[in-house]
Each structure stands twice: as structure tokens, then as C-alpha cells.
Amino acid sequence: MEENKKFFSLSDKASSEYCCCVVRIGEVKPIENSDFLATTDVYGTQVVVRKDQVKQGDIMFYAMNETELNSEFLHDNNLYDISNRNLNANADDVNAIMENYEVNYKSKADPLRAKMKQYKKTVKSMTEASAKLNKEIKNLKKKLETESIGASRNDIEKTIEEKQAFNDKKIADAMALTTKIANLKNQIEEINTAGKHVVDDANKMCGFFNQYGRVRCINLKGEPSFGYIFSKEEVARYNPQVLNVNLEDYLEENFDTIDGKLFVKAYVPRVKEQSVKGSGRARKRNKKITQLERMIEGQFYFHYDTTPLDTRILKNFFNPEQNIIVDVKIHGTSVCLGKLLVKEPKNGLIGKLKVLWHKAVSYLNLPKLDCVWYNEIYGPVFSSRTVIKNQYINENVGLGYYKTDIWSEVGEKVYPYLKEGMTVYGEIFGYEGNRYIQKNYDYGCQVGKYKLMPYRITTTLTDGKKYEWNVEDVHNWTRMIMRESEEMNNLLHPIDILYHGTLAELYPEIDTTSEDWASNVYHSLSNDKEHFGMEENEPLCKNEVPREGICIRIDDDKRTECFKLKTQSFKFKEAILVDSGEVEFDNDYNNDDNVSEDNQ
């Protein structure tokens, strides 16, 4: 290893929410009714482990929830599940076991399953025919009530008798087939039971990761588990050089890179590529649009990443006597709206010539000349979390060209109320058209309506220096703008401040001098229904959905930062949505980065 080169490090694009860290294992608590499972706590997050493999005091690695682990590491440690066994190093051995199962058990059960499927299909057809006959018989009986004695009445009675006999036979045949289905099911269960030990042997040689190596929250023996703990020996199978590393030197450090190679990243759900009608014409149209960069360096900044709160952060960055602000975390899509200095092409012949030369330099790689082709003016800058929607000057279209997304649509409504240098960061929630911005999270909005909650405001001065507003000032500004017009009153939602004070005042029962102060406060915050509605349904929503969580800021913090604490119920909801293949509101139209919309 090169001198000064860290074996475990954070890359430039790393996220503190989606990485690994080196941890010392705390207390390991056995799970009731389990011979080998236990729970341990990693900075306030519960993880289920094997008590024969993880001991208190061990230094191990923790992969955070909703990360994606390196495929070579998973391969070398046979951590892919049995359905993806061919990705494991021991694939040949596992396949040999499964071949025994296929030949001696599955091959006997499959024909029975096929026969049972056909019987079920026939029973369904018979049941539907019987329902149709019952309806016909019912109508004939009604008709019989109005018929007088005679040949016609006799014909109806005969028809009812024939249909009833036919229906009775169908019901009898369906019941006979149902009995056969039950017998087939028993035979299949007997074969499965006989072959279970073979599948169990194969499963013991595999892990539980899907083909993408996703770390997700799961329930084991009734205990929630968030994240994955693994050992130095497991890393050594992937990179033996780790055996020469003293893990004490890296305790409590986050990393996404091992020995210069990316090891973990944020998990991104795979979505089937969909063709867009008219996309060919759209591409041709966009080629005709002449684009010039309109942004000025130092004026606009995307919102910083919000760090997940844990006991390590509480211990290192908080103290009992600091004033903090706690507000509701809204589940929507992030937006940045600014009135900032931007470039505007100069007018007049000389100005137009400079613009033409600037285009030629850009497209033909010609030598650059020291000429200014633009004026600096205050103008609109609209963005999602990762993409500026009006980054370029498009000479062939007006501002309406950008009005193809919800971020710019909201921006045009709010822009008249921004002062020079202001950037408003907020969350859009409710509906985009007739669909939810985030599934089932209506936040009291009617279908087709949405709201904006500003949660952060900055002012960028002409020299590029940035002034950060206090959260209460953001709340008051929102209230003031809401009074300006009915449109703003319907659009804006003030940030919901739930608490402003010290942690000592919030939880006076917790000993502030105890070494366990941080972990006790974290536990109290995570389960605080009284103050923060944690693990409760979101009261702002008409639908029954879990509250996402809370955001916590330190008053007058010298660092520009915010910490988030999500509820367990929300984390499980997210995992289920991903597993089901449901993708919520698109972060950025045509955004190849596919980054999670999780700022506030």
C-alpha cells in the first residue's frame, strides 16, 4: 500500500447515507425462540446477526440500509441467494445438490402441479357455467310466476328441470375435481417435505442477497434488521491485503472504497426502459435549439445532502444544552428556486458577433478569445435536486419551453416573490396531474393539486458570499408570502416546526452526564409519538401512510447541515415498494444519474 494512501476511504461522490463503516460491536442480545439469531445496535440502528459469528467487542464492518455491495465480494463469500446461485463461487457444488433435488423430487412434483393447474382451470370454468345456469333458472322461475296453466307453462317447468339436472351434474363434477385437487396438493406437499432437507443443504451454502447485492430492511423472528454486518475474514476473501490493516485505525470511519476500488454505493431500483412516443421527433427538435450556458459560477448551489442521525452524530455534534429545531420530514420531490445573477447575451451588432464567435468556439473547438458576450442580470434558476432545468439560453424558444416539468412550473409561480440573490429550497408534495408525487402521500391535497413547503432559504450576495436563513425566518417568510395572494396561500405550506429548545429540556429524565446519553436520546427521539408522531400514521395525509420522520437542526450552526431521522415503518414501506417494482415520482425527467430525491 502506498504511503499515506488509506485502505478504506470515501470517494468524491460518496454519500454518508449510503456507505459502510468500521464499527465495534456492542451488546449482543439473543432473540427469544431462536437458537442462533441475536440483535445488536449500530449507532442506534438495530441489526440482526448470528450470535455464533458476532461477539461483543468485535471490530467488524457495517453496510448501511439500501446500499449495493460489490459483486466480487458477494461472489467470493457465496452471499447471493439460491435463485442467483450461479453468481456465487460455489455455484458448481450448489448446482450438484440442486440437480439431485431436480431429479428425485422436483421432476415428480412438476407433473402433479401441471395436472392440478388444469383441474383448477376446469373447476373455474364449471363454476362460471353453473353461475350462468343458476341465473337462467332464476329468470325462468320468475317467468313461471306470470304464466297460467297450459302448454307454455309445462314447457318452462320442463326446461327448468333439465337445466337444474345439468347444473347439479356440473356441481357434482366440480366437487369431484376439487377432491382430486386436494389429493394432488397432499402428494406435492409430501414430495416437498421429503426433499426439503436437500434444498436446506443448498440454502446453507448460499446467502440472501438478490442479483443486485441490495442491503434492505427485513424482519427476522419478529425483529427488524436494518443493514448488514460482515467480518474482516469476509473482506479478506475479496481482498487479502486487509489482513495487514489495523482496523482500530479506522474505527467509526465511513468508507465506500476499499484499496482504491469502489465497494459500496447507493442501491438504485432497476426499471425497464420505456419508449417515449415521439422521442425521435423530440431529439431532432432539440438538436435545432442553440444552447448557451447561462449560469454564473458561485451563484447557485444545490442543496447539501442531509445526513441520517445516529448515536455517533449525537455524541460528536450535539450537547444537551444546545438549542435545536425539529420539523416534519415531508415525502415529496425536492426543488430549488432562485433569483440569481445569470448571463444574458448582449444586444447590438457587436454583441451578436461575440455570441456567434462564442458558439463557434464551443462547437468547432476554435481558439478562445477574451471577449464577454453577455451581461449579468438577475434571472430565474429552477432545479430539482440534481438537475438545473433552465441551465441554458435557448434562443429559439421562450420561457414556456421549460414549462414541461413540475419544478419549473412551481418556480414560475414563486419567482415573482423572490428578492435578488434568494434561493428557496423546498419539497413539492401531493399530486402531479392525477398521480401521487409519492405513492399514497396526498398530504391533504385534492387530486391534481400540489403544495410547496420551503424548508431552507439562502441569500447569495454579489461577491458570491452566501447567507443562511434561520429556520424560523423561513417559516415567517412563507407565512408572509401566503398573505400576498390566494394563489400563494393555496400553493405554500409553512415548514412544520414541532420543537424548538434543548435536548435536556425535551427529555429531562435522561441523565446528561451519562456515557449513554447519546444512545438514550436517540432511542427517545426514534420512538417519540407525543412530540413528533414517530411510528404513527402521517396526520397530514388523508390516506393511512406512515410518517416519514423528522429533521433536526442546531440553532446558529456554523456548519450548514441538517440531520434526518426516518421511522422504521417508513423504511419498511420503502423496501416493499422497491421489491414490488413500483417506482415513485421520477426525480428528474431524462436524468441519467437516477439519484434518490431525498434532501430535506
Account of the 3D structure:
With about 600 residues, this protein is α+β, with helices and mostly antiparallel strands. The chain folds into three domains: about 10-90 and about 205-265, no CATH class; about 90-205; about 280-580, D-amino Acid Aminotransferase, Chain A, domain 1 (2-Layer Sandwich), CATH 3.30.470.30. The chain is built from 14 helices and 27 strands. Strands 18, 19, 21, 22, 23 and 24 form a six-stranded antiparallel sheet that branches. A hairpin with a 2-residue loop joins strand 8 (about 220) and strand 9. Helix 2 (about 90-145) runs antiparallel to helix 3 (about 150-205). The longest helix is centred in the N-terminal third of the chain and has 56 residues, at about 90-145. The two termini are about 40 Å apart. Mean pLDDT is about 85; it is low at about 270-290, about 395-405 and about 585-600.
